[in-house]
Amino acid sequence: MKYYLPIHINGGNRGCEAITKATMDILGCTKEQLVVYSSNIEIDRSLGLEQRVTLVARKQFSFLFKVIRKIRNVFVKEQYSRNLFTYNYLYNPFLRKITKHDIMLSTGGDMMCYDNNEVVYTNDKIHEKGLKSVLWGCSIGKSNLTPEKIATLKRFSLIYARESLTASMLQQELKLKNVVVFPDPAFVLEPEEVDLPDCFSNGTVIGLNISNYVLDGFNFKSQLGKDIVSFVESVVYSSEKHILLIPHVMWLGQDDRIVCRMLYDKYKHTGRVHLLDSASLNYCQIRYVISKCFIFIGARTHAVISAYSTCVPSVALGYSIKSKGIAEDLTMPVDTVVDSKNYQSGAFMKAYDFTEMHVDELRKSLETIIPEYKENTYGIRKVFSELSCK
């Protein structure tokens, strides 16, 4: 039996790297059994994925395909219909490798929180062939549902939700019987020690991960953006603490380094704002750096998971159900989650102040919960074993 991951994309998003590496650990499979579709094998190799999984290079767009697609788009206006043409070209060569003895794992975490996309396409194709598929470690809210998503959710052989809010929604709203809930796969990964930035030798460090997703653009013009700038200034000019900016996604169009660099360039003269060279580190190495922070503030879910898993009190800058759901399952106070999509002025500072005020209490709570919580992730093995025998 082999497991096929068509939605891995590449480790330029360190969350994708984390899910893929953790999946191997959780399932206890060999490198040959875990077949991963990669849009950038060079990046994945540099992160050590080739030692753990079998990488298959994603098909590249030919000149002829680009021309045909451009002409076709003149006549096809609906976006998902346009995308189907591209998905067919990209994914069919990989999907054809899957046999009745195999299982497709649809990863990506919150992919179902966005528009109809390749998760729907690949699962529908697998279902047409009568093969098994698992939606692996997912989050999805009621507001994210579409007719296409509802139909494909019913076609998955199994849905592994990574937090209880998603599981409850799927069970109550859609009456699905194919849903189980376990922690996000990435919780099982261990930090990998690396040399720490100099700021850790000079004082207390606050880790800060921000992205265009929570800022509504590559600038700080939104109210949340303005509040983040005010927060940085208050730390720099009214305390002895340092801020370490930690990019976690380095994909074109959503590169955390862009907004992190903006803040760094503005305040580097103070000697108290620093920028981590995340591009040179893999997920577990970034996790090690995060584990040494006094408090962590994160927009990217898998960056926040690194903080939680190493018992670092955190503020989650949420933009979908996943942030609230994971925090709730860990019994983290709602005061530590900021809703970036319905943001109210001052909410960021309020969440940070609450976290700092209760930092010891939050750390002790995580130290109590995390060992068993992480171990619970392996419970998916039994469910998977039963699915494999069907």
Number of helices: 17
Q: Rounded to an integer, what's the Rg over CA atoms?
A: 21 Å
Query: What's the order of the H and E elements?
Result: EHEHEHHEHEHEHEHEHHEHEHEHEHEHHH
| Sheet with most strands: strand arrangement | 3-2-1-4-5-6-7
Which band does the percent of strand residues land in?
Answer: 5-15%
Helix coverage percent: 40-55%
Number of β-strand runs: 13
Give the rounded overall mean pLDDT: 95
Terminal-residue CA separation: 13 Å
**Biggest β-sheet: count, sense, barrel?**
7 strands, parallel
Outline, from the CA principal axes? globular
Uncertain parts: none
Structural class, by secondary structure, is alpha/beta
What does it look like?
It is built from 17 helices and 13 strands. It has helices at 14-27, 41-46, 63-75, 79-95, 118-128, 147-153, 164-173, 199-202, 212-215, 223-238, 256-267, 283-291, 301-309, 321-329, 347-357, 359-376, 380-389; strands spanning 3-9, 34-38, 54-57, 103-106, 132-138, 158-161, 179-181, 205-209, 242-245, 273-275, 295-298, 314-318, 337-339. The strands form two sheets. Strands 3-2-1-4-5-6-7 form a seven-stranded parallel sheet, sandwiched between helices. A six-stranded parallel sheet has the order 10-9-8-11-12-13, sandwiched between helices. The model has no long low-confidence stretch (mean pLDDT 95).
